[in-house]
UniProtKB/TrEMBL annotation, chain A:
Pathway where it operates: Metabolic intermediate metabolism; (S)-3-hydroxy-3-methylglutaryl-CoA degradation; acetoacetate from (S)-3-hydroxy-3-methylglutaryl-CoA: step 1/1
One BP term from GO: ketone body biosynthetic process
Record's catalysed reaction(s): (3S)-3-hydroxy-3-methylglutaryl-CoA = acetoacetate + acetyl-CoA
Family: Belongs to the HMG-CoA lyase family.
EC class (word): lyase
Gene name in the database record: Hmgcll1
Protein known as: hydroxymethylglutaryl-CoA lyase
Keywords: Lyase, Metal-binding
Pfam family, one: HMGL-like
UniProt keyword RNA-binding, yes or no: no
GO molecular function: hydroxymethylglutaryl-CoA lyase activity; metal ion binding
Enzyme Commission code(s) on record: 4.1.3.4
UniProtKB/TrEMBL annotation, chain B:
GO MF terms held by the record: hydroxymethylglutaryl-CoA lyase activity; metal ion binding
The enzyme's E.C. designation: 4.1.3.4
Keywords assigned by UniProt, alphabetized: Acetylation, Disulfide bond, Lipid metabolism, Lyase, Metal-binding, Mitochondrion, Peroxisome
Pathway(s) per entry: Metabolic intermediate metabolism; (S)-3-hydroxy-3-methylglutaryl-CoA degradation; acetoacetate from (S)-3-hydroxy-3-methylglutaryl-CoA: step 1/1
Subunit structure as annotated in this protein's UniProt entry: Homodimer; disulfide-linked. Can also form homotetramers.
The name this protein goes by in its record: Hydroxymethylglutaryl-CoA lyase, mitochondrial
Subcellular location as annotated: Mitochondrion matrix; Peroxisome
SUPFAM superfamilies: Aldolase (SSF51569)
Catalytic activity: (3S)-3-hydroxy-3-methylglutaryl-CoA = acetoacetate + acetyl-CoA
Gene assigned in the entry: Hmgcl
Amino acid sequence: MGTVPSALKHCLSYQHLLKEQLWIAEPPAAAHPAQEPQALGLPEYVKIVEVGPRDGLQNEKVIVPTDIKIELINQLSKTGLPAIEVTSFVSSKWVPQMADHKEVMRGIERHPGVQYPVLTPNLQGFHSAIAAGATEVSVFGAASESFSKMNINCSIEESIEKFEEVTKSARNMNIPVRGYVSCALGCPYEGNVLPDKVAEVSKRLYSMGCYEISLGDTIGVGTPGSMKKMLEAVMKEIPLSALAVHCHDTYGQALANILTAIQMGVAVVDSSVAGLGGCPYAKGATGNVATEDVIYMLNGLGINTGVNLCAVMEAGNFICTALNKKTNSKVAQASFSTGTIN
Amino acid sequence: ATGGYPKRVKVVEVGPRDGLQNEKNVVPTPVKINLINMLSETGLQVIEATSFVSPKWIPQMADHTEVMQGINKFPGISYPVLTPNLKGFQAAVAAGAKEVSIFGAASELFTKKNINCSIEESLERFDEVMKAAREASIPVRGYVSCVLGCPYEGKISAAKVAEVSKKMYSMGCYEISLGDTIGVGTPGSMKEMLAVVMKEVPVGALAVHCHDTYGQALANILVALQMGVSVVDASVAGLGGCPYAQGASGNVATEDLVYMLNGLGIHTGVDLQKLMDTGTFICNALNRKTNSKVSQASCRL
């Protein structure tokens, strides 16, 4: 479309436009009544659950030193994120990246108003997590028998029994438990996953006491079409306010899927700073959706998240430098290119 | 609220023009011709072939006549070309073009920086093209750039977008493609802009041309579809970076768009596998990685 000077990054108007979108200072007041989220049928507030330090790093090849993990989490704690998944109390044999779970849990700053959940696959992990100071835990179910078998070497039913032990202990100690359902929109082994199966597993986790169910498109194959069908089935069994979506961007569908979920009233979204975490089922492909890109979209919709996008980009820049990799966040890529962020 | 979706969507493939134009490496003519021929086999109905603009400005498009004359023209497929002025239009028709496109903008500063005149002056230039096109029975597609933000002016008012779109539609453009040139738009601004434009131009004559520079393209396209838009521009392999943000991406990838539309049960007529193969071909020729996530992912359902 014609030649353009490359000195555009000094263009004040462009930077100004981006600053409005990036919400550096305050969220821009909705210029138009039509821009109010409620007028669009959307939630006013969306809770972002940051899974970078756990789900993200777990799927990164390079083992990250403990002090870097702690620094990442401390930086994320200052961004306004309400929940940051810290680590996983799983055997280091299975997930070497998470071998330093105790040190990380004990080493991080705990900011008031921020939750720091950890994964606990079984009772042993749960006790270990509590001993290390955890005040919230997560359990991971799946909507696919094959995935359950391949991932944790037991059937869905057997895994539910293990989780019941965890939720029982957790209840006794007033520890909230979040439940995840993997393969909600497709399984690397079984292919199609029935929405009713997702609803069934979700209901089991919710009934045993999980306060929130995060529905995971584990291999990112979902589209707005399958997201809608799945949510319709699950919403028959679980109240909307207890639902979250955990979308992977492996096929570039994450933001469209998240938008669909939000349009249906879901108000909790999982994401990973800098889009950390590839896909273990598709070599070289991406995994988690980038927190920066989600926040950019929510800001543009006038939806409050409480999160400072620039601070998240800085944390993303920190961890990408430490991992010696490029960010998976398009917002971060574009912002650093235009000199809006230095 | 989730609206209904159109049953069919027309995908307008802009890779060979908008895509290649924004790629650093100049692509040899035979490669361009092969790209377009491969795209012609995928089921795409519209493939923007080239631009009849001065090679001084756009070296990548210097071979426009050879490309236009060299490609296989399949019946039922349209091969529009860009024509910035009457001279370009005449060269295009002489080279065999049967459809042309003209480019307006919703930003005065962008128009000034891009083609060194005001919006009003640019529309006067296009008037000449429209007149000649009408006489030759050549359909004209109109593009409006910067509909959701401008690299120079910043925010762009939806009313301005509607005004320019209406003018181009009244001049005789059969379709107006609304371009988020720097990819800053979000579903919020897309919805607001379309609501205003749709008061002036019938939705059946509207298309969206979203850039994925901030990762928002598919979400923006989704909202446009919910509002009744049923024509979407995209670029195979997401060819074409952003001239305003070095290293950042530009056009949305056709593969990723088709994947989403397939998942919504919307008919496009496009064979995704053939499209991916075409993307692989051009990326190899350009010695670059694809920008399409669907292409990158290797697991299949």
